[in-house]
Each structure stands twice: as C-alpha cells, then as structure tokens.
Write a structure and sequence with these properties.
The protein is α+β, with helices and mostly antiparallel strands. It contains eleven helices and 39 strands. α10 (589-601) links the parallel β38 and β39 (606-611). The longest helix is centred in the C-terminal third of the chain and has 20 residues, at 621-640.
C-alpha cells in the first residue's frame, strides 16, 4: 500500500510542476468563470486523487433491519444509503440531482422514511417520504420546511414551516403515512422556532425559540391546542441547546444558566429550575441523546475544538469518557436495542459512521470511506496556536504544516476563516485541502476569532453588533504577528480565504492588512451589511439583526455602512477572487456583484466564479472540483508564483 501511495505522490508532484499548456477542462454547465483563465487538464489530472475522498455521515438507525442510514456521495451529490452490517455494502436509497439534507425512519416502527431536500441550494427544503427510490411530497413545494422531531412511538412527525407567510416558522405535525393528517399546531412570530421533542405520551412537546446564540426560550406546547406555556422566565438571558424527554418524562436540556458554558442537566417544566448534572465545569456540551430505557445519556463535550464522547449513568450521575481519536463527533443517536451511533472524523480519517456498545465501550466501524487511493496517515495533524489579541483577549486556532522533510525552509501560509460568526474551526479531515499541504507545501491556519462558539457565552458575544464587529478583524492581526515570526513560515507569502461571515472577514482583512497578505479568495461573502440585511431571506433577517445590528436604526445603519467592505473597496489593493452561489438565500449573489464591480473599477484584478445551480456554498461535486482548480490557479498566480 505504501509503495502505491508513493508512486501516486510522485505523479502528482510532477504534474503540478508542469507548464499550463495543452488541453483544458470545460467548466460545468452552471458555472460562469468571469475573468478566470482556463483550467489545464494537467492540473485536473494532478489533483484527481485528492478530489475523490468521500464521507459517510451517520443519519440514524433503521429500527426494523438494525442497519444504519448514512449520507455519502458516489455521483455528483450526497445521497442517502443504508448499511446492513459493519463495513457492509452501502445500498443507495435516494437518486436525486440535489443533495439530501436530512432523513430519518419513524422511531420503533421503522415503517416510513422521511427525507428533507431542496433544489439548487435554495434551502427552501421540502419533506418527502422515500420508498423504492421515489420521493412523495408531503409539504407544499414552495415554503421552507425542516424536520424537527418524531413522537416517541413513531406516529407523528413534528416540523417547522414558513408556509403561512414566508417568514414565520410555524409548527406543524403530520403522520407521514397519511398526508391528509398534516396540521398546523401553533402560529408563531419569527424564524427561530422548532419542536425539540415530544413528551412520552405525545400530548405535549418542548419547543425552542432561538433568538440568538446567547438567547433561546423554551416552551411546553399542548399538541392538541397549540397553547404555549413558558418554561422559566423568557426575560432571562439564557441560551438552551438540545431539549429531550426521557422515558419517565424528565426533561433534559443543555443550558448556560449559571455558567459561561452549555451544561447538561434537567429542567422542571413547571418552575423552569435548571439542575446541572454532567460534571464538566468548563467547555460546552455540544449535543446529547437518551437511551430508550432511560438509563444512559450519551453526550459530546467540545474541549477547545476537540470533541470528547461521554456516557452518563443516569442513576449514579457518573460519567465515563469513551476513548476515541482526537477530532469531531456528531449525530449521536441511540438505537432501540441500546447501541449508540455517531459520526467521527479526524485529520487522518474522513467522516465515517461508528457504533458503540455502552456496556463494554467497544467501538465498531460501520463505514470506511475512500480517500482517493491516498494514504491518509500522511496528512498533517493540527497544531494548537494561542495568542493574545490587541486588547489582551486570548484567541486560538489550528495550524496544519507541510512535512518539513519534503518541504524544508520557510513555507507559504493560507489563513482559512470560518463563517457563522457563531461557528468554530475544529480539527478534522481536510479533504482536497490536503493537496495544498502535501503537494504544494502550503501551511493552512484555521483561526477562531472572538465571536466563535466553543469558548463560552462571554467570548461569543465579544463581536456582537456593529460597534464591536471590527475587533474580530483585529484578532487576525494578532495571529499575523505570531505566525510571521514562525521560523517555518514565509512572512512574504501569506494569503487568506473565508466563507459566509468568513467571507466578510476575508474582505475586511484584505483591506486592513493588505500590506501583509498576497491575495484573498472570498466565498459567499457579505460585502455590505445594510444591503445584506435588506436582501437576506425574510425568515432569517431578524435573527441576523441581533448579531450584526439593525439597519433600520439610523445610528446602527451608519456604523454598518462604515464598516462594510464595499464602503472601503478603494482600500482593497491585493488580487481578489470571489465565489458565489446564484441561489444563495443567506448572502445573495448581489453582494458579490457589487464588490466585484467596485474592485475592478479601482483597477484591482478580480476573478469571479458563479455557480447558477448552487446556494450558500457549492454542494455538487463537479462545481466543487472546478472551484478548487480555479482557486489553485489563483494561489499559483498570487501566492506561489508561476509554474509552482
């Protein structure tokens, strides 16, 4: 195996150094490459193995066959598959042009499978039943719908929908076996509502009203009447995460009440009293699930970006840590027979599905996703970097370095800034980005600036509103100060990229620190906060106003305008690449168009890649590949130099 990998590596490295001559790759039909040179076929061939890695994320259990549902891609988009046994065949269930966004069998019964899917990345998801490879529509085909929770007996599915007016996320229930049973339970105001779980008798349900990353209200909803009773005091500044009923009716939640972090505990629906149960005093509990017998709770603790899986014995209140590789853990869900399913990814392994026996802590791997024939053990492990920012605030990130034996001396560096801003860069499998590290010798740094999640509610609020927004941009300056002094980093060859809010950061950093960066590749990026807030979809507009500021208030509008990259476009002097999804419901394509026009008017070179059949990021493999190849051309021209 190692000899084969070495041979592939030599071929890749040799092709990467080839001159850009000869045949080129035709762009996919939906791609518009404005100002971008053709992609040489030699470049596509050189990178091919890195583009063929896969993932198989855990989507749930089939309670009848005891198989697992996984999301994986063998064609152009991720589809739903079922695996009957550990490391068994992945049997494809869905065959759609667009990716399946979510799916689940009815608990216990397993007699119906419901999936969630949109068209072209619009995020106007519809719900369907899936049988014999065919989808049958359950919702109206127009509004935005999302799977919320099943009743414990598997009869009723709760979901949210903007069907009534296009903005408010009303709450519905349906028996998917009988579409005529569809019923509006509660009319609400706002886009952050969802059914968290049904009580064991299905007569009531816990409902969450998400207002911001720092504020969520909980309600107990009467399923027959839709009447909402607040759990606790909605005026209190408390954020809740998951909320689930145990078989005995106990309501378990994650909450930051009385703490800087999300803790696992119980809450009394009548009084709102929260009692922390899990022992962790620091770090967020990122998610949990309760076994069908109510004896065990599996939960994930995010320790500075590294996920730890733990099992809580409900009776004794004692927790055990499951020994797993450092990385990311998601989708934890118990099967009716007691096994725990989850997704695990690390720097040296793509996301795959695993199960755990809670009694023995034995871990069983269900899928082994392909890595394009490459040896994933060659991939760099991340290095934790922490610095003090301009005001003394500690900020951190993860640095992936190329192998010093193959790439001695000072190497180029690429900053990759996450979106959100309520997001977090965590260690995981880098997929095609491993090509940059392994084959081009580029180091990649993933910063977690202030406003990132995972470091407590104080930290996540440090960038809120327009008047603190640029403090997160200044955090990049502190990272630059540290990394420019690194003996293995070339301070004259540093570039940056970022998507969504990270795309705003990409623009803003290019303006503030343009003399220290060679180029910027900004993806689905906010260029003007005012036009963004005015044009983002209405169901999410108020939620974004809480984070960024309210453009309807004169003072805030003035500040939002002042800090917008479009306002300061004349100060952006470095080469720019912009990537856009034509159907993006979050950051409309107009945000890219106005920035490209302004930068080009100032005589700065700007490439623009538009996918007309994509939304907030590219989901189709053919578009992802072309985006990667054009980005490589951009880095070769502006970071590495010709012929590199």
């Amino acid at each position: 195996m190692k000899r084969i990998t070495a041979a592939v590596t030599l071929t890749i490295a040799g092709a990467a150094m080839a001159q850009d001559s000869g045949p080129t790759v035709a762009p996919p039909a939906a791609i518009v490459a404005d100002g971008i040179p053709p992609v040489p076929q030699a470049l596509a061939d050189a990178t091919r193995p890195y583009l063929e890695s896969r993932a198989a994320g855990f989507d749930g259990w089939n309670p009848v066959t005891r198989g697992v549902l996984v999301s994986t891609r063998f064609g152009n988009t991720a589809q739903l598959h079922e695996v009957a046994m550990p490391l068994g065949m992945r049997r494809q269930l869905s065959f759609e042009a667009d990716a399946i966004a979510g799916a689940s069998y009815a608990p216990r019964r397993g007699d119906v499978l419901v999936v969630q899917k949109d068209v072209g990345g619009s995020e106007f998801w519809q719900l369907y039943t899936l049988k014999d490879g065919r989808l049958t529509l359950l919702t109206d085909g127009k509004s935005r719908n999302a799977i919320n929770a099943w009743s414990h007996d598997g009869r009723w599915l709760g979901y949210s929908s903007t069907r009534r007016n296009g903005t408010d996320n009303d709450l519905y229930i349906i028996d998917p076996r009988d579409p005529k049973s569809d019923r509006l339970v509660a009319r609400v105001q706002g886009g952050g509502w969802a059914i968290g779980d049904f009580a064991p008798d299905a007569k009531t349900a816990v409902v969450s009203q998400y207002l911001s990353v720092n504020k969520t209200n909980l309600y107990l909803m009467n399923v027959a009447t839709g009447r909402m009773t607040p759990i606790g005091d909605p005026a209190q500044p408390i954020a809740y995460g998951d909320a689930k009923f145990a078989p005995d009716g106990t309501l378990w939640v994650t909450s930051d009440e009385g703490s800087d972090f999300q803790r696992l505990g119980t809450i009394d629906p009548r009084t709102g009293r929260f009692t922390a149960v899990a022992p962790e005093a620091k770090w967020d509990v990122a998610g949990f699930d309760i076994s069908d017998d109510g004896r065990t709770i599996a939960y994930v603790v995010n320790e500075a970006g590294i996920d730890r899986l733990k099992l809580l014995d409900v009776a004794s209140r004692r927790a055990r840590t499951v020994p797993l590789p450092a990385g990311g853990i998601g989708g934890v869900a118990f099967a009716p027979w007691g096994a725990l399913g989850f997704t695990l990814t690390s720097a040296k392994a793509p996301a795959d599905t695993y199960s755990l026996d809670p009694a023995t802590l034995k871990v069983t791997r269900w899928t082994a996703s392909e890595t394009g024939g490459l040896d994933p053990q060659r991939n760099a492990e991340p290095e934790f970097i922490e610095v003090k920012s301009f005001d003394g605030e500690p900020v951190s990130g993860f640095l992936y370095r190329p192998d010093p034996k193959r790439w001695p001396g000072k190497r180029p560096l690429l900053f990759n800034i996450h979106g959100g801003p309520e997001g977090q860069s965590t260690p995981g499998f880098l997929g095609r980005n491993n090509y940059l590290i392994n084959e081009l010798g580029i180091a990649i740094f993933y910063p977690n600036v202030r406003g990132s999640t995972g470091f407590g509610k104080r930290f996540v609020a440090l960038d809120n509103g327009p008047f603190k927004r640029e403090d997160s941009v200044k955090d990049i300056g502190a990272f630059l100060d540290r990394l420019e002094r690194d003996p293995r980093i070339d301070p004259k060859r540093i570039a940056e990229t970022g998507g969504s809010y990270g795309g705003y950061m990409c623009y803003a950093v290019a303006i503030r620190y343009g003399d220290r960066f060679k180029a910027a590749n900004c993806i689905v990026a906010i260029s003007n906060f005012v036009t963004f807030l005015e044009n983002t979809q209405s169901y999410r507009r108020d939620l974004r106003r809480v984070e960024y500021g309210d453009e309807r208030v004169a003072e805030q509008r003035a500040k939002l305008t002042a800090i917008s990259p479009l306002t300061r476009a004349a100060e952006l002097k470095i080469p720019l690449m912009v990537v856009t999804g034509g159907n993006d419901p979050r950051v409309p394509a107009s945000e890219a168009n106005q920035m490209i026009a302004a930068v080009r008017a100032n005589g700065v070179p700007a490439w623009h890649l538009l996918a007309k059949d994509e939304g907030h990021g590219f989901a189709k493999k053919e578009n992802q590949d072309y985006q990667f190849w054009t980005s490589l051309l951009f880095w070769r021209a502006n970071l590495l130099g010709p012929g590199k």
